[in-house]
UniProtKB/TrEMBL annotation:
The keyword Nucleotide-binding applies. PANTHER family: CALCIUM-TRANSPORTING ATPASE. Residues 9-82 form the Cation-transporting P-type ATPase N-terminal domain. SMART domains: Cation_ATPase_N. Its main location: membrane. It is found in: Cell membrane. The lineage of its organism: Bacteria, Pseudomonadati, Pseudomonadota, Alphaproteobacteria, Hyphomicrobiales. One of its GO terms (molecular function) is metal ion transmembrane transporter activity. This is Magnesium-transporting ATPase (P-type). It comes from Rhizobium rosettiformans.
Length: 901
């Protein structure tokens, strides 16, 4: 074990040593230094679980019950010296494996790309400023800043810690968070006792800290233990697994039926074994939906990619299905419904209301009182505002190419800009030489932030900012216009808070206090009654226009949208009205929720769309309450304390930009742009993926049932087979997989977001689907026999009659694809007929393949086909139209009856 806890930076650092580290505490590494060290130490990554090699992946394609059946059939046909048949079967087995292999590779690549989008970032000091870098680029010597909710990106020796608590379960198995501080510990302390170290992979539960990186990648403690990062996510969802199990049982069922039919044919029908055996092989192949698992996987992968394009990153695949059935979305306000681009619009002091001009984060703009510029020399309270805004603040403003950007919390960025506007752009000369000695970080539970500074004369100053109720509770007096301190006029301040909030402004209160130097540390208890209120700050954060449209879309889709915010009730109500929430007349606050028992909360939660001044614990109760009413709940969150609610929700959605690592890890979905519109887009994609999986199933199962019915009827009726076994193989493995695949790429149907949400427990095999399977399989069998006998009747050879029957089957499958594309509406629109590029690409490939098998001499020899005359070809296409007309009319009848109901 190393003694890294003593002077840890010396061990893993390059030889420049500790002195330089001390010097870089304030400014961090230079970028060129960091780059150099990256060369020496490599990326800060743990190796992923080795992906399966291509050979294993290819061989695993053969690990499938159907393939075993086919291999056995190939062996038996070879034994019977039916070389052509066994050749075709082997070709089909190989073809299937290659298609499966390629598709799986694509799907895995899609998932990997998405994993990259979720790469964690770390806040570091580089070149003297705070920036955010990809955590894999951290090097020993970097100064890293951590806060509640972060996953520690590397092993760090703390140089500063404030109320820091870390959950080290990933490393020590201990799930209770442990306290951390910068004081050194004994050199032989065990891993769990090294309180001055933060270890890579552990989770910051509370507080803030700053530390120097001492080890990265495999050199970290977690790297030494496990050397492994994530388990590989399999491409599966409950629905896919359900279908897998179904397919396995179906295979078994079919094999037993096939064995019985073989016995029946031999004993009762006295048929010759070779032909009978080939017929039974054909039947098995016909009935087993072998392409289904592959096509369903591709459908999911396509869905994941489509969501990623709309900024919704799926972390757990089952979320795709859940999203499609979401019936209520509980969303944050700040940054999700609003832009989170804050700007201070007003200041309220005792007796004065100021308007603040300016745009964005530029520290430029006038502060006006009664329409005239207010000079801080005449309005001393403005200086107090500037000082509180600038000191009680962790954000940094950067200007590049004339544009001002904020690094850190946007609200604090707006306060920094305010400070600049009041002091005229420069730093406040009065606070020069002040040192921050302690801080109580903002927390949604107490809703304020406090800082303690020591000035150059050793005097201590406290500055506090936070939610007005929280600050008023700490204040004993207020700053009067003449600079004196007067009694706190709570009624006045509450009135002014309501006034600002009613305009949709986010309201903060700021206060100052004196601190006795011997007290040193800030404590929440000591703050009570020790502060003097300076006034209120009103910030504007306009709604996102796209969120307004997305909320309307959700309402049309039968999805309720509820806003759950930490903000003031009046602000929440004003923003909710701008956004277009349904019930803006009613607001429940965290305090109201606390007073309710679970049963009354469940009823109230349904009726209410706005929840204000809530804490993460309320979110958890609300999710549970809504779920108890049978709703499928999507819930957004960003903070470390939101993790339980995100886990509990049916679809937990974390913010990609402002969200903590803890929230992202608890969530099923991460929004790359924190935007509500992306949630609506994800729900639409979720519905589309579910529809497409349903379409794939609705297309595949009747196709298999139809083919199987054809063979069984022929066998029992003692008729000649209208399609041979190898032809059935061809249809199933070549054409069916291609056409089924087209459905995986289907775009959303019109009206996808105008339907009410699907019930979560809706069974896959609905009565509608069963009826569809029956109807289509009967039509397939009838028309195949029809054309077969028509051909024989015309005097065609049995081979030609079979060729025509096989082509009829394929033509009907193509028409069936066009039918299935619109299960909720008519297929008789120009848009439906025009289809998509993918559909036409698949249809054209299949058509070319059909021409090849029908007209190419060597294919004719292999498959026992004959060239179909033009007129008969037209009859076949005509039959396709007849089939299409019949099923479409049946659908219209069903839809019409349903509408009346
Ligand atoms: P949402 O949940 O919609 O994102 P929110 O961001 O307003 O809402 P919180 O972050 O819980 O919710 O903030 C609650 C209140 O705490 C705010 O209205 C504000 O008054 C205060 N507050 C927020 N951030 C800070 C901060 N950094 N320092 C001091 N007070 C803050």
């Amino acid at each position: 074990m190393t003694d890294s806890h003593e002077m840890p930076m010396l061990h893993a650092l390059p030889s420049e040593g500790a002195l330089e580290v001390t010097a870089s505490r304030l400014s961090g590494l230079r970028s060129d230094e960091a780059e150099e060290r990256l060369h020496i130490h490599g990326f800060n990554r743990l190796p992923m679980v080795a992906p399966r090699g291509w050979l294993i992946r290819f061989l695993s394609q053969f690990h499938n019950m159907l393939i075993y059946v086919l291999i056995a059939s190939a062996a038996v046909t070879a034994f019977m010296q039916h070389w052509i048949d066994s050749g075709v079967i082997v070709a089909v087995i190989l073809g299937n494996a290659i298609v499966g292999f390629l598709q799986e590779g694509r799907a895995e690549a899609a998932m990997d790309a998405i994993k990259d989008m979720l790469a964690p970032h770390a806040a570091v000091l580089r070149d003297g400023r705070r920036t955010s870098v990809d955590a894999s680029e951290l090097v020993p010597g970097d100064i890293v800043l951590v806060e509640a909710g972060d996953r520690v990106p590397a092993d760090l020796r703390l140089i500063e810690a404030r109320s820091l608590r870390v959950e080290e379960a990933a490393l020590t198995g201990e799930s209770v968070p442990v306290d951390k501080a910068s004081d050194p510990v004994a050199s032989n302390a065990a891993l769990g006792d090294r309180s001055s170290m933060l270890f890579s992979g552990t989770l910051v539960a509370a507080g803030t800290g700053r530390g120097v990186v001492v080890a990265t990648g495999m050199a970290t403690e977690i790297g030494k233990i496990s050397g492994m990062l994530q388990k590989v996510e399999t491409l599966s969802t409950p629905l896919v697994r359900q279908m897998d199990v179904f397919a396995r049982w179906l295979t078994l069922f079919i094999l037993i039926v096939a064995a019985l039919l073989l016995a029946y044919g031999l004993v009762v029908g006295h048929l010759a074994f070779p032909e009978l055996f080939m017929t039974i092989v054909g039947l098995s192949v016909a009935a087993i939906p072998e392409g289904l698992p592959a096509v369903m996987t591709i459908t999911l992968a396509v869905g994941v990619q489509a969501m990623a394009r709309r900024n919704a990153i799926v972390r757990r695949l089952p979320a795709i299905e859940t999203l499609g059935s979401v019936s209520v979305i509980c969303t944050d306000k700040t940054g999700t419904l609003t832009r989170n681009e804050m700007v201070v619009a007003s200041l309220v002091a005792a007796g004065h209301v100021y308007a603040v001009d300016g745009e964005g984060y530029a520290p430029e703009g006038a502060v006006r009182w009664k329409d005239a510029d207010a000079d801080p020399r005449d309005h001393a309270v403005l200086t107090a505002f500037a000082r509180a805004a600038g000191l009680c603040n962790d954000a940094v403003l950067h200007s590049a190419n004339g544009a001002w950007r904020v690094e850190g919390d946007p609200m604090e960025g707006a306060l920094m800009a305010l400070a600049g506007k009041i002091t005229g752009g420069g730093a406040d000369p009065f606070t020069e030489g002040w040192r921050r000695v302690d801080v109580i970080p903002f927390d949604a539970a107490h809703r304020y932030m406090a800082v303690l500074h020591v000035d150059d004369k050793g005097k201590c100053h406290v500055h506090v900012k936070g939610a007005p109720e929280a600050i008023l509770a700490l204040c004993a007096g207020q700053r009067m216009p003449d600079g004196s301190t007067g009694p706190l006029d709570v009624a006045y301040w509450e009135h002014m808070v309501d006034m600002l909030a009613a305009e949709g402004q986010r309201v903060l209160a700021v206060a100052i206090g004196e601190w006795r130097p011997e007290m040193r540390h800030l404590t929440q208890e000591a703050l009570v009654g020790s502060l003097t209120l300076i006034g209120l700050v009103g910030l504007m954060d306009p709604p996102r226009p796209e969120a307004i449209a997305a909320v309307a879309e959700c309402h049309r889709a039968g999805i309720r949208v509820k806003m759950i915010t930490g903000d003031h009730a009046a602000t929440a109500r004003a923003i909710a009205a701008m956004i277009g929430l349904q019930r803006c007349d009613r607001v429940l606050t965290g305090a109201d929720i606390d007073r309710m028992d679970d049963a009354s909360l469940a009823l109230a939660a349904i009726e209410t769309d706005i929840f204000a001044r809530t804490s993460p614990a309320h979110k958890l109760r609300l999710v549970t309450a809504l779920q108890s009413q049978g709703l499928t709940v999507a819930m957004t969150g960003d903070g470390v304390n939101d993790a339980p609610a995100l886990k509990r929700a049916d679809a937990g959605i974390a913010m990609g930009i402002k969200g903590s690592e803890a929230a992202k890890e608890a969530a099923e979905l991460v929004l790359a742009d924190d935007n509500f519109a992306s949630i609506a887009a994800a729900v639409r994609e979720g519905r589309t993926v579910y529809d497409n999986i349903k379409k794939v199933i609705s297309w595949t199962l009747p196709t298999n049932a139809g083919e199987a019915a054809t063979i069984i009827i022929a066998l029992f009726a003692g008729l000649a087979l209208p399609v041979t076994a190898v032809q059935i193989l061809w249809i199933n493995l070549v054409t069916a997989v291609t056409l089924g695949l087209a459905l995986a790429f289907e775009p959303s149907e019109d009206g996808t977001m105008q339907r009410p949400p699907r019930r979560r427990d809706e069974p896959l095999l609905t009565a509608d689907l069963l009826w569809h399977i029956f109807l289509v399989s009967m039509l397939f069998a009838a028309l195949v026999f029809g054309i077969f006998f028509y051909a024989l009747d015309k005097g065609h050879s049995a081979e030609l009659a079979r060729t025509m029957a096989m082509n009829t089957l394929v033509v009907m499958e193509i028409f069936h694809v066009f039918f299935i594309r619109n299960i909720y509406g008519t297929s008789l629109t120009w848009r439906a007929v025009r289809g998509t590029k993918v559909v036409w690409a698949c249809v054209i490939s299949v058509t070319v393949a059909q021409f090849a098998i029908t007209y190419l001499p060597f294919m004719q020899r292999l498959f026992g086909t004959e060239s179909v005359p033009l007129m008969d070809g037209l009859v076949i296409v005509g039959l396709g139209w007849v089939f299409f007309a019949l099923v479409e009319i049946e659908k219209q009848m069903r839809l019409a009856l349903r509408k009346r109901a």
